[in-house]
Design brief:
single chain; alpha/beta; Rossmann fold; six-stranded parallel sheet; two-stranded antiparallel ribbon; 8 strands
């Protein structure tokens, strides 16, 4: 069985993505792709993984979990989504590392489903905008507990992703930048569902509606109606153009509130984030979705 695990991360429209998948659940179900509601698996999987800290999973745990996911139905591909899979926001950063529990969580997941094919889908976000939010949510704001003696410029996604790949080398990992999500939203959904490029889905512009004015969306949909035949690249260029003219600045721009951080530091961290993405693209087994 193909198990698709969407792991968030936090503050990357993770719940909106799940809602979009659920809107397509009936059509996907007809194609052998199951999108169970989160109540059927989130707490069960979390409790099972936590219990594996002390002892291996009980024999038959895989079958019990699958029965919960599928409600006695059948599927070739199952999509699970949980932004808290690797950590809750309060413990997402520890010792100067993003999601330090991720490698162990994936290793245990692979132990639970040893004969199944895993695909991990994960959004990342500029640490310059994400770290202040996670610091505010952190249960321990002690300097060493959160930062681990590290400069914020040293906290890199590539470190976490490389460790996930080492812990679960049989699993593929698809990554995208949350900042690019409005341009590639439909592609993310299709990739998770295993659909071909260009196949129609419900809610392909869900994220766009939250960051573009109503007038802009009306004009955008009118443009698509007048130009029904476009490649994905052409659509993304059109989306970018409409966002440039009709984007809601208060929804697009990030408000940063981190004591001691300067504009120069934020700009430098953003440049490092761009460079780190190149490093991520070079990690074997990782696919990066981009406009």
């Amino acid at each position: 069985m193909q198990l698709v695990l969407h792991t968030g991360v936090h503050f990357t429209e993770e719940e909106r993505l799940l809602k979009c998948l659920l809107r397509n659940a009936e059509d996907l179900g007809n194609r052998g792709v199951a999108v169970p509601g989160p109540g059927k698996y989130r707490s069960l999987v979390r409790d099972t993984l936590n219990a594996m800290t002390n002892s291996p999973a009980a024999p038959g745990a895989r079958e019990v979990l699958l029965d919960s996911f599928l409600d006695e139905g059948e599927a070739e591909r199952v999509i699970l989504s949980d932004g808290n899979f690797f950590r809750t926001p309060s413990t997402a950063v520890q010792g100067g590392m993003l999601y330090p529990a991720a490698p162990v969580r994936m290793m245990r997941m692979m132990q639970l489903f040893p004969s199944d094919q895993f695909e991990i889908f994960m959004a990342i976000r500029n640490p310059a905008t994400l770290l202040p939010v996670l610091y505010e949510k952190s249960q321990n704001k002690d300097g060493d507990a959160f930062w681990g003696g590290r400069d914020p410029r040293q906290i890199l996604w590539s470190e976490t992703i490389a460790l996930i790949r080492e812990a679960a080398p049989e699993a593929t990992l698809t990554v995208w930048c949350n900042e690019d999500a409005p341009l590639i939203w439909a592609e993310i959904i299709r990739e998770m569902a295993g659909l071909d490029h260009g196949e129609k889905i419900i809610g392909g512009f869900d994220l766009l509606t939250s960051i573009m004015s109503a007038e802009g969306m009306t004009r955008f949909r009118g443009y698509l109606k007048d130009h029904p035949v476009m490649t994905e690249i052409q659509k993304r260029r059109v989306i970018a153009a409409f966002l440039g003219k009709y984007g809601l600045d208060d929804q697009i721009e990030e408000e940063l509130d981190m004591p001691g951080w300067t504009d120069a530091l934020v700009e430098e961290m953003s440049d490092i984030y761009d460079d780190d993405l190149v490093t991520i693209q070079r990690i074997p087994g990782v696919t990066v979705l981009s406009p």
